[in-house]
Structure formats: structure tokens, C-alpha cells
């Protein structure tokens, strides 16, 4: 079964450093998403991406964050200057449309980001 | 208005029992209501989903009940098994955007 993969599984970084989280979406899926989950809390939408553009972003997704699809396969989330409160699990997701009103969103296993 | 409220926060059920998790929403533009199951160290996985044009959807031991007028929906797990022990999230989305608004999650423990 095709799956979304993410690397690294765990990233430790110092406050103020830049990090890049990588995702390989399921082949032929065209809509990509990043979510985050602070430990013990709910999953929160960060950004959606389609046709090499941001479709929508949340208030969490400020100027410190950026996304891109650098080579047509990988989908990356960059945090320019990490803060302690960026420590969370970051999930990449893609969508498969199953019909007119039906879709399934597939989540990757996540990258745990720890900012010290 | 974008919130989805989920309860209970945790649930303990005996093997063979029924697990019931409830969610409520305010935004009437929501038109897609999935439930996700998450095991420790894994990403959320789609369990079952419903659109507001039906009041109930059943897939195996999992059933979603949907009450449009009350803006509530619930997940029922029949014949709960220890392997069902996980965190369950309800979510909602509007307009096929794929942007999911998640509830707070319910940690389910099924005792043997």
C-alpha cells in the first residue's frame, strides 16, 4: 500500500537554528498538507499546498515557516529560526480524491522536532 | 467557530463493550466529518468518515452517528478489542479543501 514517508523521524535543534523537515508524498497525489501536534494536544493544520503554491495557511504559519516542493517529489517544511514552542510532532499529509464528494487524507508517520 | 469539541478526554472499556466518543461543532459550513485512529509514534489513520446528508454510517465494528440539527457526531466502536486501544480524533472540513480541524482526541483503553 502506498504511504507518505517523512524524514527525519526525530530532529533535535538549538533555538534559533533553521530546520528542514522532509516528506515524500504518495505518487500522483496533488494536494499536500503540513500539520503539527504539540505533545498531548490536538493535531493542528499549518498549511496546504497545491500546484506549487500555498492554498491556505493558518495563523500558526507565520513568516518563520515556508514550504516548497524543490524537485517534484519531496515536499519540505522549513522553519527559519526555531523557537522552543516549535517543539512538536510535524505530520505531512496528502489527499486522494475518491469521487465527487469523497476523499481520503493520508498522514505520514511524523517528525518529532525538539528545540532546546 | 472553527473548533471541534471532543469528549471524553479518556475512556476505559472492557473487552466486548461499546466505546462511544462524541464531537460537536459550530461551523455549519463543515461538510465532511472523518474519524482518525492514532497509535503511539504513528500518524493519524482514517477510520471512517461521514457527510451530513446521512445520519449514520457503519463499517464493520465502527459506526458514525450524525445529528445535523444538533451539530454533533459520534463514533461507536462495537465489541471493543484490546487492539482498539489508541487515541481517536474526530475532525471536520469544509468544501473539499482537505483542511482538517481536529478535536482534542480521546485516549481509549480496552481492558482484556
What do you see in this structure?
The complex is a heterodimer of chains A (116) and B (112). With 116 residues, chain A is mostly beta strands. Helices cover 0% and strands 56% of the residues of chain A. Chain A is built from no helices and eleven strands. Chain A has strands at residues 5-7, 10-13, 19-24, 31-37, 43-50, 53-57, 65-68, 75-79, 88-99, 102-107, 111-115. In chain A, strands 2, 4, 5, 6, 9, 10 and 11 form a seven-stranded mixed sheet that branches. Chain A is globular. The model of chain A has no long low-confidence stretch (mean pLDDT 92). Chain B has 112 residues and is mainly beta. Chain B contains no helices and eleven strands. Chain B has strands spanning 4-7, 10-14, 19-25, 33-38, 45-50, 56-59, 62-67, 72-77, 86-92, 101-102, 106-111. In chain B, strands 2, 4, 5, 9, 10 and 11 form a six-stranded mixed sheet that branches. Chain B has a five-stranded antiparallel sheet with strand order 1-3-8-7-6, with no helix packed on it. Chain B starts with a strand and ends with a strand. The A-B interface holds A 4, 31, 33, 35, 41-45, 48, 55-56, 91, 93, 95, 97, 101-110 and B 32, 34, 36, 41-46, 49, 51, 89, 91, 96-105.
Amino acid at each position: 500500500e502506498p504511504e507518505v514517508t517523512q524524514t527525519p523521524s526525530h530532529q533535535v535543534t538549538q533555538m534559533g537554528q533553521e530546520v528542514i523537515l522532509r516528506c515524500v508524498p504518495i505518487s500522483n497525489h496533488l494536494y499536500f498538507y503540513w500539520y503539527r501536534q504539540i505533545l498531548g494536544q490536538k493535531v493542528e493544520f499549518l498549511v496546504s499546498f497545491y500546484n506549487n503554491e500555498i492554498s491556505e495557511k493558518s495563523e500558526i504559519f507565520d513568516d518563520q515557516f515556508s514550504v516548497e516542493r524543490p524537485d517534484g517529489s519531496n515536499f519540505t517544511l522549513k522553519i527559519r529560526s526555531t523557537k522552543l514552542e516549535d517543539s512538536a510532532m510535524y505530520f505531512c499529509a496528502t489527499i486522494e480524491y475518491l469521487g465527487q464528494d469523497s476523499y481520503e487524507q493520508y498522514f505520514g508517520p511524523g517528525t518529532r522536532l525538539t528545540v532546546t | 467557530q472553527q473548533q471541534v469539541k471532543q469528549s471524553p478526554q479518556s475512556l476505559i472499556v472492557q473487552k466486548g463493550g461499546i466505546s462511544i466518543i462524541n464531537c460537536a461543532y459550530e461551523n455549519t459550513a463543515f461538510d465532511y466529518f472523518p474519524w482518525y485512529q492514532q497509535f503511539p509514534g504513528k500518524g493519524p489513520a482514517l477510520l471512517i468518515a461521514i457527510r451530513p446528508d446521512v445520519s449514520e454510517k457503519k463499517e464493520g465494528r465502527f459506526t458514525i452517528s450524525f445529528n445535523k440539527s444538533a451539530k454533533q457526531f459520534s463514533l461507536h466502536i462495537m465489541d471493543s478489542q484490546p487492539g482498539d486501544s489508541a487515541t481517536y480524533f474526530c475532525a471536520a472540513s469544509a468544501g473539499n479543501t482537505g483542511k482538517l480541524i481536529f478535536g482534542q482526541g480521546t485516549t481509549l483503553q480496552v481492558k482484556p
